[in-house]
Amino acid sequence: MDERPAIVAEGLTKRFGAIHALAGVDLEAPAGTVLGLLGPNGAGKTTMVRILATLLAPDAGRAWVAGHDVTSQAATVRRLMGLSGQYAAVDGYLTGRENLRMIGRLSRLGRAAVRRADELLELFELTAAGDRTVRTYSGGMRRRLDVAASLVAAPAVLFLDEPTTGLDPRGRFGLWRLLEELTGQGATLLLTTQYLEEADRLADRIVVLDAGRVVAAGSAEELKAQVGGDRLELHADPGADPAALANALAGLGSGAPVVDPETGQVVLPVTDGPAILPEVAARLAATGLRVTDLAVRRPSLDDVFLTLTGQPAGRSA
Ligand code: ATP
Asked: Is pLDDT above 70 for 9?
C-alpha cells in the first residue's frame, strides 16, 4: 500500500443536470483520524460520501481510499471500507444476529462470521435484542445495528453518513463513545453530520461544504478562531453606569467595547479571553467599578457555521 493518507480527494466534481453537487472538492484524512464533513442541506455531503464509497462515479477529479483509487480499484476499496447511513444495509425481517452473520458470510469471514456477530452485538449493547427481528427495534437500536453492520469486516476506513440523526441524546452519546473506541484502534472515519456538537467532539479536522465547495477547513478550534476570538461579557453593578464600565475597558480588546442598551451588558471582543482577565481586574480595581457578572464566551461551531454559510446548522426539513 502506498503512503497516501487514508482518505484523499482531489478536485472532485459531480453535476446532476444543472446542479453542481460538487464543484471541485479537495480533502484528506490521515489514518486513525476523524474527518467531519459539515454543511447545510444540499451542500454535497452525501454525494461526497457516495463517490468515496465507490457508489457513484465523479465527473472529474480523483479520490483514494486506503491507498486505492475509488474508480479504477473500486472492488479493493469496497473490501477495505465500511459504509453506514441512508443505505439500508440491514434487513428488517431478519434478527440483528442474522443480519450481522449474513454480512459476515458475504464478507467471506467464513466461520468467524458467527463470533464477529456476537462481538459486535456485545459492543453495541444489542446482545439482549440480538434474536429479535430488526423490525421490532427502536430507532436508536437500528442505528447502532446499522453502524455495527458496517464494521463486520473490520474496515480500515469507515464512512458514516449522519450516524446519529434521530437518536436521543443518550443514544447519541453512546454511539460517540463507540466511534471514539474505533478510532483509538486505528480506524479512519469520515462522518457527515448536522450536529456541530458531534463534529466538535469527534472530528480531528472539519471540512465545511456549501453548494459543492469547501468554504472552510481545519480543526474545530481553528475554525472558531477564524470566526473571531472570544467575547468578554460583563454586567455593571446595579446603579453603576455601563458606559463608564465600557470606557474603563477601552483599548483592551480586539475591538471597542459595546453596551447593550436593553440589558446594560458590556461586551468586549478579545483575541484571548482568559489571558486578558488580570488586566480587566486591574482596570476595575483602579476605577472602583464593580461588576455582578463577568464571563468569557468562546465562539461555538454554531457561530462558525452561521458566519460561513449564512444559515444555522440543522435540518430545515
Ligand atoms: P443533506 O444534508 O440534505 O443530506 P447533502 O449535503 O448530503 O444534503 P447531497 O445529497 O450531496 O447534499 O446533494 C447535493 C445536491 O445535489 C443537492 O442539490 C441535491 O438535490 C443534488 N442531488 C443529489 N443527488 C442527486 C441525484 N441523484 N439527482 C439529482 N440531483 C441530485
From this structure: yes
Split into its structural domains, the chain has a count of 2
If you compute the radius of gyration of the chain from its CA atoms, what whole number of angstroms results?
A: 24
Q: Which amino acid is residue 212, in one-letter code?
A: G
Q: What is the number of other CB atoms lying within 10 angstroms of the CB of residue 181? A: 11
As for ligand 1, residues whose beta carbon falls within 6 Å of it are: 16, 19, 21, 39, 41-47
Are both 188 and 265 inside the same structural domain?
no
CB 216 within 8 A of CB 36: no
Q: What is the pLDDT of residues 228-262, one digit of tens each?
A: 778 889 998 888 889 999 999 999 888 888 888 78
Residue 109 lies in a domain: yes
Candidate of 16, 208, 311 to mutate for ligand 1, largest count of ligand atoms within 8 Å of Cβ:
16
Tell whether 311 is covered by a domain. no
Distance CA 185, CA 280 (A): 45
| pLDDT one-digit tens code per residue, 55-112 | 999 999 999 999 999 999 999 999 899 888 765 678 999 999 999 999 999 888 888 9
Closest approach atom of ligand 1 to CA 50 = 11
Same domain, 129 and 246: no
For residue 256, the enclosing domain spans 229-298
Q: For residues 196-210, give the mean pLDDT.
A: 90
Candidate of 47, 159, 160 to mutate for ligand 1, largest count of ligand atoms within 8 Å of Cβ: 47
> Does residue 310 lie within any of the structural domains?
no
Q: Are residues 102 and 162 in the same domain?
A: yes
Task: Quote the CA–CA distance of 309 and 216 in Å, as a whole number.
Answer: 10
